[in-house]
Design a protein that fits this description.
501 residues; 23% strand; 4-stranded antiparallel sheet; alpha+beta
Length: 501
């Protein structure tokens, strides 16, 4: 393809509210019964290319041109590939095909081959021949992942807000200002939907390919219900299913397969009923993924670095969220001091249909938070702080040793002892001691540093798979089992008699 020139208030999201049984803005429980739905998602334009070079991430100005790949939305600039001066007119011919470095790398992953870039009439696998006499020389190195698309498709960030836009302070407007830079010629839309009614977003947004949505609200700390506005000056809260069905129902067809981030306090996952409703709502919305921060008094601004990294990798470079998640965590140790992160992604199962895979990540530190479990800040007996001894690791073979290096796989628990000399002396006891057992899961390799990292718990599936029923037990086996049980009791009693003697 011929090249083109382009120019490039209350901080915690939680609190106390009166619980209200009716849905948001209406006495009807199901929002779909009162709110109109929008038309189906519009079709995308036939062709859209990025404005940013795959190699250097820069745009084009002056005499710099962008060469558009004929098989994907990526582009490469004339500063990063050295087209011989005598062949500049040749590569600009209409019948010349350009293959970007990313597409070439994908095609030659198993069988390396020289990169020529420009081919006559067709791709190399379809008989196209290189138009340059020698391989295409690259200048510089990748500054992004080779599979990055760099804002090649229109993007919308939709921020759903319950009540006034200043009731929960979030970093979402900061993300919007950051993302605007990547769409100088349009194609990016940021909307704040303050939920007091419904909008026809299809008329506002036009043809878009990628959606990320943020939902900011307070959650009621005694139930996990979500705030739903005020009645007579007092905040009211309603169940998670009531609020989400009312807020999202008009936009389900338009916003499906989006990434959604919930900027609410952790009570929404602390209470089982609310967490189940949240997972079911995510499943019903058919979103690609959802992220929740379970801190009791979650401060959305603490997640700024995490969300900025997510904006760059997932929204701009359009990388897969699950694959890029370890990188997001590695840039977010400060976030881990404040909250864990729960990621929910939809998975298709041939037997059970669409399900949610739910995974929790917790910051881990060698001394203060092994395996993501916090060490108490204070000794409960003497009140001393920072008094815990260097932890002692216990291995599966009951061996113990002082820990001065990252946790080893053989360790099954750590033992801590209070080092305050007067601890428990007045009670005639030994200093306070406790241990932390290793839970199921493991450290995320890509997110580890020398002394800290992120611990990933095993994923769970929602809804849980049905229980597997065991085969009926025959009368004979039941009798045998009862006999063995009786023998076991007799042996135990006999053993106790011997112990007394």
């Amino acid at each position: 393809m011929p090249p083109k020139k382009n120019t490039a208030k209350k901080r915690a999201a939680g609190g106390i509210a009166e619980r209200f049984s009716g849905p948001l803005g209406s006495p009807v429980r199901n929002g779909e019964e009162v709110l109109p739905t929008v038309s189906a998602e519009p079709e995308l334009p036939a062709e859209t290319h990025s404005l940013w070079c795959l190699i250097c991430r820069d745009g084009a100005d002056g005499d710099v041109v962008l060469y558009q790949c004929d098989t994907c939305p990526r582009v490469m600039c004339s500063r990063c590939i050295n087209v011989p001066a005598g062949h500049l007119d040749t590569v600009r011919r209409i019948n010349v095909i350009f293959l970007c470095l990313s597409c070439h790398s994908e095609r030659t992953r198993r069988n390396p081959a020289p990169y020529f870039g420009f081919y006559s009439a067709n791709l190399p696998e379809k008989g196209g021949h290189p138009v340059l006499p020698d391989f295409l020389q690259l200048i510089g190195n990748f500054e992004t992942a080779s599979c990055s698309l760099l804002a090649s498709t229109p993007l919308a960030i939709i921020h759903f807000i319950i009540g006034a836009s200043d009731e929960v302070i979030t970093p979402v407007p900061i993300l919007s200002r950051y993302l605007e830079h990547f769409y100088p010629n349009g194609g990016y839309t940021y909307l704040e939907v303050v939920t007091r009614g419904s909008l026809n977003l299809s008329d506002i947004l036009g043809p878009l390919d990628a959606f990320s949505r943020f939902f900011s609200n307070h959650s009621e700390q005694d139930s996990g219900w979500l705030f739903a506005g005020k009645i007579k000056g007092k905040f009211i809260a309603m169940s998670v299913s009531q609020v989400l069905s009312t807020v999202f129902a008009p936009y389900v067809s338009l916003l499906k397969a989006a990434n959604i981030v919930f900027l609410v306090c952790g009570s929404v996952v602390e209470y089982e009923d609310s967490f189940v409703e949240l997972k079911q709502a995510i499943l019903d919305l058919n979103v690609a993924s959802a992220i929740v921060f379970p801190a009791t008094r979650f401060q959305p601004l603490v997640a700024t670095n995490f969300l900025l990294a997510m904006a760059e990798l997932v929204m701009v470079e359009q990388l897969d969220l699950q694959k890029s998640f370890p990188t997001l965590l590695s840039l977010s140790n400060r976030l881990g001091q404040h909250t864990d992160v729960i990621v929910m992604t939809t998975v298709d199962d041939a037997v059970n249909g669409t399900q949610l895979s739910v995974t929790t990540f917790a910051r881990a530190h060698l001394q203060t938070k092994p395996w993501g479990i916090s060490v108490p800040a204070q000794c409960p007996l003497c009140g001393s702080t920072t008094s815990w001894s260097e932890k002692v690791g216990v291995t599966a073979s009951n061996e113990t040793y002082r820990v001065k290096a990252p946790a080893q796989a053989a360790v099954i628990n750590y033992v801590y002892t209070c080092t305050y000399v007067e601890c428990s002396k007045c009670q005639g006891k030994s200093p306070h001691r406790f241990d932390i057992a290793k839970p199921p899961g493991g450290l995320v390799g890509a997110a580890k540093s020398k002394n800290s990292g992120w611990f990933q718990s095993p994923s769970t599936i929602f809804p849980p798979p049905p229980p597997v029923h065991s085969s009926p037990i025959s009368p004979t086996s039941s009798i045998t089992k009862a006999k063995r049980s009786s023998e076991s009791v007799e042996m135990t009693q006999s053993t106790r008699k011997r112990a007394r003697n």
